[in-house]
């Protein structure tokens, strides 16, 4: 689970990766057979994404191949917003056909009846990881968060697991953690010895006791994702929770920083169709592209996020693939948005008060 800024990450794309992926997109994407030839009556779909580099990656990986195959134009709008989704559906005045969704929004939208059920006759998800399947949404990518550390300090002795992150005696250094309770709660439990695959249901009191122990050693409580790695780069902190893509981009810029792939927190990039859209069938066809292996490979090459098919990993550019998490490893854990549903606001308030105490 992530907040709106983190879940919808916007990252720069290198010119090289764009050119390379663009070439692949034009030549290698195998399209679902039922989409040929283009014959849909729908002329356009409105698709909402994060915009910026993330939106550009989706345009090249999903939107352009979809339009080429169906003749349906994709009108992309930046800025998914849960309140706007709810308002459109409840007013029965749906302007957005497909919307990118945060992990936390999927159970909320389901509970409120804001999404169309996925049409399994159109959207083929056979072989995808089980975490990417939902009755009302499709998971088209996987992002990963874990420990970042400098490579020019400490002689290589740095924490690579959350118990090591909490072990300030054997791994001295300044710590950075986030100002939000989601992710931080799971991190604290892993630090206290809970195996990643047993974090849920979360023992909240145990997590806060673990946070009490690390609190004196946290130099920065960080609100914005970009600050996680920027503080390491500026030598203002040493070890922080951040995302693979943040470290990947800095390494490409020759910043001495690295990332641990152990005990990663994994989240999904979801998409759903708003209930009441006039373009339901075309929107479901679009979701079939989001769940198309070749399109996901192109998206991985452009975005640095993993496909939701494990057998697609081998097709990702090796330079990108080394940055993708092992989604099948029990050493990593997927966010359980269902567990957070109904708890997030209350725990965030408690966490903010704890930070001020």
Automatic annotation (TrEMBL):
<dbReference type="InterPro" id="IPR006059">
    <property type="entry name" value="SBP"/>
</dbReference>
<keyword id="KW-0574">Periplasm</keyword>
<dbReference type="GO" id="GO:0030288">
    <property type="term" value="C:outer membrane-bounded periplasmic space"/>
</dbReference>
<comment type="similarity">
    <text>Belongs to the bacterial solute-binding protein 1 family.</text>
</comment>
<protein>
    <submittedName>
        <fullName>ABC transporter substrate-binding protein</fullName>
    </submittedName>
</protein>
<dbReference type="GO" id="GO:0030976">
    <property type="term" value="F:thiamine pyrophosphate binding"/>
</dbReference>
<dbReference type="GO" id="GO:0015888">
    <property type="term" value="P:thiamine transport"/>
</dbReference>
<dbReference type="Pfam" id="PF13416">
    <property type="entry name" value="SBP_bac_8"/>
</dbReference>
<keyword id="KW-0813">Transport</keyword>
<dbReference type="GO" id="GO:0030975">
    <property type="term" value="F:thiamine binding"/>
</dbReference>
<keyword id="KW-0732">Signal</keyword>
<dbReference type="InterPro" id="IPR006311">
    <property type="entry name" value="TAT_signal"/>
</dbReference>
């Amino acid at each position: 689970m992530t907040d709106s800024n983190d879940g919808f990450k916007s990252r720069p794309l290198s010119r090289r990766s764009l050119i390379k992926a663009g070439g692949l997109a034009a030549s290698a994407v195998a399209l679902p057979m039922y989409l040929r030839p283009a014959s849909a009556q729908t002329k356009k779909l409105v698709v909402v994404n994060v915009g910026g580099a993330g939106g550009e990656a989706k345009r090249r990986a999903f939107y352009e191949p979809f339009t080429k195959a169906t003749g349906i134009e994709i009108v992309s709008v930046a800025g998914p917003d849960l309140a706007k989704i709810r308002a459109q559906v409840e007013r029965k005045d749906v302007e957005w056909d497909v919307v990118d969704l945060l992990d936390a929004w999927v159970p909320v939208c389901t509970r409120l009846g804001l999404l169309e059920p996925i049409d399994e006759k159109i959207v083929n998800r056979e072989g995808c990881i089980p975490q990417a399947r939902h009755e009302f949404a499709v998971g088209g990518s996987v992002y990963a968060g874990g420990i970042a550390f400098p490579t020019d300090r400490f002689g290589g002795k740095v924490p690579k697991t959350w118990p090591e992150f909490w072990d300030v005696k054997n791994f001295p250094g300044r710590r950075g953690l986030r100002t939000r309770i989601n992710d931080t709660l799971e991190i604290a439990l892993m630090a206290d010895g809970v195996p990643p695959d047993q974090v849920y249901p979360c023992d909240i009191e145990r997590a806060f006791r673990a946070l009490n122990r690390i609190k004196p050693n946290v130099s920065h409580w960080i609100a914005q994702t970009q600050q996680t790695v920027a503080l390491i780069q500026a030598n203002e902190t040493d070890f922080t929770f951040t995302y693979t893509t943040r470290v990947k981009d800095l390494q490409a810029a020759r910043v001495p920083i690295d990332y641990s792939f152990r005990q990663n927190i994994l989240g999904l990039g979801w998409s759903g169709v708003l209930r009441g859209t006039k373009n339901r069938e075309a929107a479901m066809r679009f979701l079939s592209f989001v769940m198309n292996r070749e399109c996901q490979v192109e998206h991985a090459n452009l975005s640095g996020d993993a496909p939701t098919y494990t057998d697609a990993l081998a097709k990702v550019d090796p330079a990108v693939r080394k940055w993708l998490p092992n989604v099948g490893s029990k050493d990593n854990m997927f966010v359980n948005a269902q567990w957070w549903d109904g708890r997030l606001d209350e725990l965030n308030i408690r966490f903010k008060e704890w930070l001020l105490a």
